[in-house]
Amino acid sequence: MRVHIDQEKCCGAGSCVLSAPEVFDQREEDGIVFLLDAEPPADLHEAVHEAVAICPAAAISVQQVEGAERAERV
C-alpha cells in the first residue's frame, strides 16, 4: 500500500491522525496533514482505509503496490 495526500484539499480536520497516528500527522501552524509513513506495514492498512473513508475533504488516497501485495501474501 502506498498512501497519497493532497495537501491543497486538506481542511485540517485531523480525523486521519486520530485513525492512524503512525501514518499521519498535522503541521502545527495550520493543521494540514503530512505523511509519517507513505508505505505503512500491513497491520496499519485497516486504519489507513478508515482514514480515507472518514476524511471530510477526500484528501487521502491509497494505491496498492503490487510487490507489497505479494509480500503480504507470503
Automatic annotation (TrEMBL):
* Listed cofactors: [3Fe-4S] cluster
PROSITE patterns given for it?
4FE4S_FER_2
- Where does the secretion signal sit in this chain? none
Task: Tell me the Pfam families matching this sequence.
Answer: Fer4_13 (PF13370)
Query: Does the keyword field hold Ubl conjugation?
Result: no
Q: What positions does the domain 4Fe-4S ferredoxin-type occupy?
A: 1-29
The yes or no answer to whether the keyword Electron transport is present is yes
Tell me the keywords, alphabetical order.
Answer: 3Fe-4S, Electron transport, Iron, Iron-sulfur, Metal-binding, Transport
Mind telling me which PANTHER family this protein's record contains? FERREDOXIN
Described by its record, this protein's role is as follows: Ferredoxins are iron-sulfur proteins that transfer electrons in a wide variety of metabolic reactions.
Recorded protein name is Ferredoxin
Give the species this sequence originates from.
Streptomyces decoyicus
